[in-house]
Amino acid sequence: MPQVPIIMPQLGESIAEATIVSINVKLGEKVAADQEIIEVETNKAVMGVTTPCAGEIAKIDAQVKETYPIGTVLGYIEASEKDAARFAKQAPPPPQREMAEEIPGRSEEKSGNGAHFQIDKSAVRTFRVSTQGAVPGGGLPVPAAAKGAGFLSPRVRARMAELQLTNADLAGIAGTGSGNRVTIKDLENYLRQMESATASDASAIRAGVADAMRRSWSRPLATIGSSVNLDPVLTDRKQRDPKPGPALYALRALALALVENPAASAKLIGARVLQSNTIDIGLAIEAQDGIIVPIIRNADKTSLADLTTKYEELVSLGRARRISPEMQSGGIAAVSNFGTFGVEWGTPIPLPDQTMILGLGVGKKTPRWDESKSEFVPATEAQITLSFDHRSLDGGGAGRLLKRVIELLENPAKL
Amino acid sequence: MSITYLEAIREAQAKLLRDDKRVFIYGQDVGGTFGGAFKATKGLAKEFPGRVLNTPISEDAMVGTAIGAALEGMRPIVEMQFADFSSIALNQILNNAGTHYWRTNIPVPITVRLPSGGTKGSGPFHSQSMESLYAHYPGLIVMTPATVEDAYTMLIDAVAIDDPVVYCEHKYLYYHLKADNLPNDGMPVGKARIARSGRDLTIVSYSAMLHESLSAAEEIAKEGFEIEVVDLRTVKPLDTATVLASVARTGRLLAVGESFPWGGVTAEVIARVSTDGFHLLDAAPARVNAKDTPIPYHPNLWSTHRPSSKVIAAKARQLLRE
Amino acid sequence: MLLTRTFEEKLASMYRGGRITGGVYIGKGQEAVSVACGIFLQKGDIFAPLIRDQAGRSAFGEPLVDVARTYLGSRAGPMRGRDGNIHRGKPRDGQLAMISHLGAMVSVVVGSLMAKRGRGEKNVIGLTTIGEGGMQTGATHEGMNIAAVEHVPLVVVATNNHYAYSTPNDREFACANLVDRARGYGFEGYELDGTDLAQCLDVVGSAVKRARAGRPPQLVVASTLRLAGHGEHDDFSYVTDDIRKEPFAIDCLRRAEAFIKERDLADAETLQRWREEAAEEVENAFSAAQSEPVPSGNEEDWSAISRRDLVDEIGEGGSS
Lengths: 415, 322, 320
Fold this sequence. Notes:
The complex is a heterotrimer.
Chain A: E1 3-7, E2 17-23, E3 30-31, E4 36-41, E5 46-50, E6 55-60, E7 67-69, E8 73-78, H1 81-89, H2 96-102, H3 154-163, H4 184-196, H5 204-217, E9 221-229, H6 231-238, H7 246-260, E10 267-269, E11 272-274, E12 281-283, E13 285-286, E14 291-292, E15 295-296, H8 304-319, E16 333-337, E17 356-360, E18 364-370, E19 375-389, H9 395-409
Parallel strand pairs in A: 12-16, 16-17
Antiparallel strand pairs in A: 1-8, 2-4, 2-7, 3-6, 4-5, 6-8, 9-19, 10-11, 12-15, 13-14, 17-19, 18-19
Helix pairs in contact in A: 7-9
Chain B: E1 3-4, H1 5-19, E2 23-27, H2 44-47, E3 52-54, H3 59-71, E4 75-79, H4 90-104, E5 111-116, H5 131-136, E6 141-143, H6 148-160, E7 165-170, H7 171-176, E8 178-179, E9 193-196, E10 201-205, H8 208-221, E11 227-231, E12 234-236, H9 240-250, E13 253-256, H10 265-276, E14 286-288, H11 299-305, H12 309-321
Parallel strand pairs in B: 2-3, 2-4, 4-5, 5-7, 6-7, 10-11, 10-13, 13-14
Antiparallel strand pairs in B: 1-8, 6-12, 9-11
Helix pairs in contact in B: 1-6, 3-4, 8-12, 9-10
Chain C: H1 2-16, H2 31-39, E1 46-48, H3 54-60, H4 64-72, H5 104-118, E2 126-131, H6 138-149, E3 154-160, E4 163-164, E5 167-168, H7 181-185, E6 188-193, H8 197-212, E7 218-223, H9 241-245, H10 252-262, H11 268-290
Helix pairs in contact in C: 1-11, 2-3, 2-8, 4-11, 5-6
């Protein structure tokens, strides 16, 4: 049969222990529940210890005239399964003495002033207040006094999200709110005006290009330019079949120039400079209603003939809209030949994940000074520009790179 | 026929006494020929003998007695002479009536009428607006009628509700607000009303401040802005849905109340719109309350302490410019 | 009385064993007064007991299992765990549910009696208890005054058990005799020795009769000693030895038992049987309550008003 402990009970809040006066039962004696079996004396009075339940006295550990703390097991009752189960669920209270130690001074109290609630010993904590005050340098420096100058309100943001607008789309709105911020009224007025113009849905490609250019523009970009004599390339071209376009020559020249000078195309991310292991260069191709830039991997190791074949493949893939985003990512530079549109020069925008783009204009018959003949001779000249992220490349570095590209272009045998 | 806010309250009580024999009125000076400090019960003691009873000056016992009577099936209306004195009965209202249903599953259908709000010269203990305090505690319904029509229908609704109702009638509106006639029905309890349609800013208000807000809106209309004004009617429960729908239309929120500034109805309105309607706000929400001092006696001081249509308009203009 | 004493001793022992959450307040020493309060009340009367009125509540007809349920926080109890220990009541059965603020219930009984009178109910009275401590609140003052003004059949039984928590009489009131206040309010006043069951039955019984007969409200002041702490958390060591020697310090149960033995009203066997029956009834009440489920925060309907359509949608609070 299971045993239930007889425990020295809480005899009053300030009482920590009691002395056994008499034990009024014998081993084996049958007892009822709540029967007084032991008399104890505290510094206040003589009190009784009662049985927790009915049963038989199985063991008495307490001795007369000895003092035991509250919570001590004084003996055991052999009880029914049912009674034992009831006590298994509820643990005996923690010994009074431990509580007094945790709350200094309490054991000194003479008069009972019990709390109206039980103290959960497991929840007692010692809390030390920091004398340091607020730790400087923690958290964001909030200009608490600056009131809302130039913010976009939650409502404006919600409307922008709804219409998939970005901050760039708001560039055309002059805000009327405080600090010239764009208010919801400003935005709605603007949108109403837009509605009066012919509207159609932007294609995915259009939206994609818009997003890429917006992101690219967030960097400080600069452009340098020079002129290149295309006659050597045009002569070289006549001998080849199939014939590579000038853009492919430019791509090859840029690839070789970058092999010689890989640092030029390095990316700056935060305070770290990242250099690519391979020379992968993109070539801008016009697709349905936007430009796509498939990357030619290891362009330095691809001959002009192979480049030409590759280009034909990409053009037909492009028309079939089979150029995936993977095919367009990971390059270090790109080439754009806007000369095919008759454009003389331009300042192209590098792709957002690249730091430079080479732009080639249309070749025109131009007088060129020939020092050896001391006269102007006709030459086919084009403007070639290099736009770059000025965070990672300076004018000098860009200039040297462009000069080398021009050198190589004017010596196509080296390509 | 022209009827004042106070007369509407009297008419409502007459109708209640006439139609429902469980109703009785309990308060100081309500009986006899006197008919109450503000005449809200004039003539009723005579018309309904034994049902309009004078009590000693014992606000605690007045409400306790009402609770006991309500538990035995009556529908008592307790008239506090001034809202300010109800603080003596706080224990009975908050801890006894307010907890009874929660504790015993038996509701307590008492209605406590609080003549609330400031009038010129009434001073710190005859001017208080206590709706914020009562709304804070669970178990109570708190009404703040702003119109003659609502004063009438909402008091009748209050007595019909099985739960304790704190009915905050505004003393300034008693004689200063008139209507042409009394309606048969009103809007449902707990629903706010759009008192004025607008477009540029939402003012949420209640009781006498509704009228100050409407005046402010008229002023600002001359400057080309249309302010929408919401009359809460009941501050607990608070009609969050109507407030949010209004801010959805206008994007700007100004909460106006006559009670003291710390916490309370205006803070509650702003908290709800900020959490549930953050995406609707085009500017930070604002509020106008009385000052954080006891209510002054001198009319010059009182008119600065209390929100006025001028102050409300100034705040609205500021908010419109944000 | 025996039932109450047995029950409350069990309760105290359970409290000390850590099996009850919250406070336990017993009426040891006041059983005689309390039982007299409950025993003369009939169906239709209003009873507003306080914390030391277990005997009165049982006499009034409160099932013992409901008491156990409230202490053990059973979901089936009258308060379903929402309030505990002696705040329980069954208003529809005439037993009001007290709040902790002493004296608040006096005027509530007044209102209930007025309502009953208005309905034409006859022969109905209300009885409420108060201690000499609670008697000093403004609420008691207002309640007693309004009871007399409204001339309701109210009996207020005030027990001076000589301590309000740890405060003795000389810091509670300065009048020579609490029963003198009856005159001040327009009540009729009587005093009695709270340790004597016979006197309790006699004086309280007569006060109830007079109230039923339409006399002004009645104040009965009984004198006893609180024989336990203010609550079971309190070891009441502030009770002086001198006080314990006073005549009002006698245990009413022991006195009643002596009386029975003296006059041979019941033999030892009967007394023993009563003890056993009480213990059994107490045991049954606790066992029944113990096996019942306790409330769960997640299954609770968190509405404080009966009109569900008017519940304020204040958003989720707490840890729901």
